[in-house]
Amino acid sequence: MNQIITIGREFGSGGREIGRRLAEKLKFAYYDQEIITEMVKRTHFTEEYIQRIEENGVLPLLPITVGRTFITRSPHMQEQGLLLFTEQSKIIKEMAKQSDCVIVGRCANYVLREYQPFRIFVYADMNFKIARSRKKGKELTNLSDKELKKKILSVDKSRAKYHQFCSNEIWGEKSNYDLCINTSLIDIKDSIYGIKKFVKK
Amino acid sequence: MNQIITIGREFGSGGREIGRRLAEKLKFAYYDQEIITEMVKRTHFTEEYIQRIEENGVLPLLPITVGRTFITRSPHMQEQGLLLFTEQSKIIKEMAKQSDCVIVGRCANYVLREYQPFRIFVYADMNFKIARSRKKGKELTNLSDKELKKKILSVDKSRAKYHQFCSNEIWGEKSNYDLCINTSLIDIKDSIYGIKKFVKK
Question: What ranges in chain A are assigned the alpha helix state H?
Answer without folding.
Answer: 15-26, 33-43, 47-56, 77-98, 108-111, 126-136, 145-167, 188-198
